[in-house]
Design goal:
The protein is globular. The chain starts with 6 loop residues before the first strand and ends in a 10-residue tail after the last strand. It is built from nine helices and nine strands. Helices cover 33% and strands 17% of the residues. It is an alpha/beta fold. The chain has one domain: Phosphatidylinositol (PI) phosphodiesterase (TIM Barrel). The structure holds SN-glycerol-3-phosphate and magnesium ion (MG). Magnesium ion (MG) binds next to strand 2. It holds the Pfam family GDPD. This is Glycerophosphodiester phosphodiesterase. It is an enzyme of class 3 (hydrolase).
Length: 247
C-alpha cells in the first residue's frame, strides 16, 4: 500500500537545479514540491552526505571518491558550478542538513540509500539510524514517516535491522523474476522501478500483491497520466516545471 505523496522532485529539484543540494530543495519548493527524492552515501568519516555518484568529477568539482573525504571536506567542495555560475560554491550537504531543511519546510522524503561499492551494510545501518533519530517524535506519535529505498539488498536488510519501524522500498530497474518472494523476504512496502521497463500487466500484478508501486524518472505529463491509470502510486520527476506538484 502507498500512503505517501504521489509526485516527487527527483534529486531535489530535478533538472532545474544542481542535483542533491540545498539549492535543489529550495528550487523544488519554489515549484510547489513538498515531496522529494535524494541519494545518501557515506563520507570517509562515516557521516551520511547527499550525493549520487561515488566518484567526484561529474557534479562535485574534484577527483577521487566520496569515501576519500570527510563530510566537512565534501561540504567545502563545489557541487553547484557544473550546473551554472549562480550555483557556484554550493557544497555537498550532509544528510542531517537536508533532513533538517525538509522537516522545517514540511517536505516529505524518499531517502534513497546509495552505498558506494563495498559500503552497503554500513550505509543502510547509518542512514536508518540517523532517520530514526530525526523522526523519533513522529515515530512515537504514529505520524507519516519518510520512506527509505535502495537498489542494494544488503543495505535494505541492514536498514531493517537497524530501524525496523521505518518502511522500505526496493529499487530495481526491471522488476525481476522472483520479485514476490524477494519483496516478502525483504519486508518492503513498495517496489520502485524504471517506468520504461514497466508493463501494464506487471503493474497490475504488483498492486494485486498489495505492494506500493513507484516509478522513476517520469518526465512528461502524458506518461505520468498513463502510469497512474495503470495503478502506479507515485513517481519522481526531473521536470518539476512540466509536471505539477501533486498531493
Ligand atoms: O530513487 C529513484 C531514482 O533516483 C533511482 O535512480 O540513479 O537517479 O538514483 P538514480
Ligand atoms: Mg536516486
Amino acid at each position: 500500500m502507498w500512503s505517501y505523496p504521489r509526485t516527487l522532485a527527483h534529486r531535489g529539484g530535478g533538472t532545474l537545479a544542481p542535483e542533491n543540494t540545498l539549492a535543489a530543495l529550495r528550487c523544488g519548493l519554489a515549484y510547489g514540491y513538498r515531496a522529494v527524492e535524494f541519494d545518501v552515501m557515506l563520507a570517509a568519516d562515516g557521516v551520511p552526505v547527499v550525493v549520487h555518484d561515488p566518484e567526484l568529477g561529474r557534479t562535485v568539482a574534484g577527483s577521487g571518491h566520496v569515501s576519500d573525504y570527510t563530510a566537512a571536506q565534501l561540504g567545502a567542495m563545489d557541487a553547484g558550478a557544473w550546473f551554472g555560475p549562480a550555483f557556484a560554491g554550493e557544497g555537498v550537504p550532509t544528510f542531517d542538513a537536508v533532513v533538517s531543511y525538509c522537516k522545517a519546510q514540511r517536505i516529505w522524503m524518499n531517502i534513497e540509500i546509495k552505498p558506494a561499492p563495498g559500503f552497503d551494510v554500513a550505509t543502510g545501518e547509518t542512514v536508518a539510524r540517523a532517520t530514526r533519530e530525526h523522526f523519533a517524535q513522529e515515530i512515537a506519535a504514529g505520524e507519516l514517516l519518510p520512506l527509505l529505498s535502495s537498489f542494494s539488498i544488503e543495505a535494505l536488510q541492514a536498514a531493517r535491522e537497524a530501524a525496523p519501524e521505518l518502511a522500505r522500498g526496493w529499487l530495481v530497474e526491471q522488476i525481476p523474476d522472483g520479485w514476490k518472494r524477494q519483496a516478502r523476504e525483504l519486508g518492503v512496502v513498495a517496489l520502485h522501478c524504471d517506468h520504461q521497463q514497466l508493463t501494464r500487466a506487471l503493474a497490475l500484478e504488483v498492486k494485486e500483491e498489495g505492494l506500493g508501486l513507484f516509478c522513476y524518472t517520469v518526465n512528461t505529463p502524458e506518461r505520468a497520466s498513463e502510469l497512474l491509470a495503470w495503478g502506479v502510486d507515485g513517481f519522481c520527476t526531473d521536470r518539476i516545471d512540466l509536471i505539477k506538484a501533486g498531493k
